[in-house]
Amino acid sequence: MTSSDPIVEALGAAGYRLTGPRRAVAGLIAEYDGHFTAAELEIAARERRLGVSRATLFRALELLTELHVVERLDLPSGEHAYVPCVREHHHHLVCSRCGRVADVEDGALADAVAEIARRSGYRIESHRLELFGLCRHCQAKAGPSA
Amino acid sequence: MTSSDPIVEALGAAGYRLTGPRRAVAGLIAEYDGHFTAAELEIAARERRLGVSRATLFRALELLTELHVVERLDLPSGEHAYVPCVREHHHHLVCSRCGRVADVEDGALADAVAEIARRSGYRIESHRLELFGLCRHCQAKAGPSA
DNA sequence: ATTTTTGCAAACCTTTTGCATGGAA
DNA sequence: TTCCATGCAAAAGGTTTGCAAAAAT
After folding, report:
1. B38 touches chain A (CB under 8 A)
2. Owning domain of residue A103
3. Contact A133/B139, CB-based, under 8 Å?
4. Are B1 and B70 within one domain?
5. How many domains does chain B have?
6. What pLDDT, on a 0 to 100 scale, did the predictor assign at position B146?
7. Are residues A73 and A16 in the same domain?
8. One domain, residues A28 and A65
9. SS3 string of chain A?
10. CA at B7, C1' at D9: how many angstroms apart?
11. Do A2 and A67 fall into the same domain?
């Protein structure tokens, strides 16, 4: 068995060394459904005595971001968070209560973007859609809308 | 004449005092077509001896953000920038070369968002679309696409 | 054996805060 | 005159860096 962890596999495939700290970070990230911050990971790593220094943690996050296995997200609060995610182009729908993140395909958005390009005259190179709301689970807990 | 500066007017209308530093910040912001950072404003203010301390500058930006006369933007680089903007819900199309920003109406996007809500089961509360590309002017300078 | 990665600790950058003073209304 | 806003300087966050030691290949 080479590795059952897709994050570790992505590192290996890209030619990076599979070190203890990197495996530890990958393992922690795999536990999240939703977003997490660097600080949260640091605390989790410390609690479990995984021996991952802050510098290494940030370096790992940077690396994983480059590999597109996690993506950096800007929450409405201004905080930086990360989400584990698929590598294709997509967007994030974030539950503002529990933090759970759903990946959203580009779908109909692509048309809207093309329309914007046509009207504005800009040559659009990239776009990013961030959606915030309540997931089904939290809607139930919070009670129906109004 | 009460004030010809829309930013100053917004402050006044909201019941805030029209102080020297606030007018100075408003004046600087009015010069931008595109995005600017807090650091850029600070430098500009210092060069012109406008006497605006950093704390006041940040406090002014926070205030103007609440009033929706500027909006905070997260550039792909991770930097925080601000853009002067209209108060209605809209999105930003940012030139990645010169920083010029065009406001974009929600338009077709609203349909796409509704579709995402339906499919995901999330109750979507807000969304943010950020578009990056080359404005017409910079396309001309940079040469046609390929 | 070689090269990458790590930990440490300090540096850095951006933003925020407490508090006394100054200025707008 | 009264309350809001400012400046200062320190603190607080979050993230990055240099460098020697440790680990992966």
Report:
1. no
2. 88-146
3. no
4. yes
5. 2
6. 47
7. yes
8. yes
9. CCCCCHHHHHHHHCCCCCCHHHHHHHHHHHCCCECECHHHHHHHHHHCCCCCCHHHHHHHHHHHHHCCCEEEEECCCCCEEEEECCCCCCEEEEECCCCEEEEECCCCHHHHHHHHHHHHCCEEEEEEEEEEEECHHHHHHHCCCC
10. 30
11. yes
Shared-domain flag, residues B59 and B128:
no
State whether residue A97 sits within 8 Å of chain B by CB.
Answer: no
Tokens of A99: 């933090």
Which residues from chain A sit within 8 angstroms of residue B124, using beta carbons? Answer: 93, 131-133
Q: pLDDT tens across A27-69, in order?
A: 999 999 899 999 999 999 999 999 999 999 999 999 999 999 9
- Residues from chain B contacting residue A123 (CB–CB below 8 Å): 133-134, 139, 145
Q: Residue A100: its pLDDT value, please? A: 94
Question: Is A82 found in the same domain as A97?
Answer: no
Using CA atoms, how far residue A125 sits from A137, B64, B95, B135, B143, in Å, is: 36, 29, 10, 11, 15
pLDDT digits (tens, 9 = 90+) for B21-34: 999 999 999 999 89
* Same domain, residue pair B117 and B130: yes
Which amino acid belongs to residue B43?
I
Whether residue A56 sits in one domain with residue A128: no
Q: Where residue A142 falls among pLDDT bands split at 50, 70, 90?
A: confident
CATH number assigned to the domain comprising residue A74? 1.10.10.10
Residues in A touching B116 (Cβ below 8 Å): 93, 104, 107, 131
